[in-house]
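To the structural biology subgroup,

Please find below the input and predicted structure for Beta-ketoacyl-ACP synthase, which we are adding to the shared reference set this quarter. The sequence is reproduced verbatim from the submission form. If anyone notices a discrepancy with their own records, reply to this email rather than editing the shared folder directly, so we keep one authoritative version.
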Amino acid sequence: MTRQDVVITGIGLVSSLGEGPDAHWDILSKPGTAPVVDEAAFAPYPVHPLPALNLDAQIPKKGDQRQMEPWQRLGTYAAGLAIDQASARGLVADMHLIVSAGGGERDIAVDEAVAAQFCTTPPAEAGPALNEKLATDLRPTLFLAQLSNLLAGNISIVHGVTGSSRTFMGEEAAAADAVRIAAARLAEGRGGIALVGGAYASQRWDLVLLYGAGGALWRGPFAPVSARPGTGGFVGGALGAFLVLETADHARARGAVPLARLAGVASDATHVRAGGASAAAAKALHARLGAPSGAGLGVLSGMTGVAEARAEEDAFLATLGGAAIRRTGTLLGHGVEASFPANVALGALALSRGGFYPAMDPADAGDGPVERILVTGFGQWRGEALALLERAA
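Predicted structure (tokenized):
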């Protein structure tokens, strides 16, 4: 079976820096861009906050806005931006939808009460205490309105996307697999157009509790991802990122201008540990994509700042001799399920504008014309992914 080329025709991107491809290109293509960081609201954990959005522009019904949680509004808004840039409003009935997302927002008061009780409960009594909470405060019905696939449902309702729908959970690996599977389905001829992406709302105490307890968050004053000593950590970044993917034939038939060609996506799920296993997995993925390196290659690294994952990714990046490397997390933060599609979007944006980005992080290196862009995604705990973008023919 002949595989079809897959191209990117639409980008929907929202970050702490603003919204839309034009705003991101204008800001990120200027040297010396500073990150937007809130160090007070969730101290000692800094976050990259969500910008003010005119939700009416993409979610016109107030009732729809009210029934969504912030991360769902963010994702639905970004999805609409992608559809609009691709001029694909008339194609939503045939558009396949693949979403990567985490769980819904939790009842913070209940979480705090449970955590406080467990801090003062003898270990022998912890089990009975948890069973009591499961029977009372932690009722399953509390979460029926918070399932991750509601983001896909809201996109379908608000924007009319009614092709097949799939939702992936599993942090960074979910994002990579969403993009990989969307591209693979189109390349194999199982559809002509798809909408894929994810969303992450950084300003949430429940996520601070989750990732902070796991030692994954950076504590203290903001620092670039390459300069976080000790165990490091990520700074959560509000991100909504969606892509409209099409087969090249489908785009050509309707007169759409591709932003970039998605030449390949590869992913793995190595458990990040010191010793090089994650870097070795990335090298294997790199080989599957043709092992691009050297001059003419731009790299958009999704480096989180968590020390072990950072060391593994640095080891992999060192094998790409001469490539221009940009660590986007310093300016955008880490958006977990949204980071990989966001970096793919930034890659397509750069190729469509015929340029690349100046250094974003003190450790960034390399310069010169860029013909292809490699996007990396190393999960803070597990998972590696690469995507290769090329100029559209």
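Summary notes: The chain has three domains: 6-106+143-253, 108-142, 264-390. The mean pLDDT is 93.

Regards,
Lab coordination
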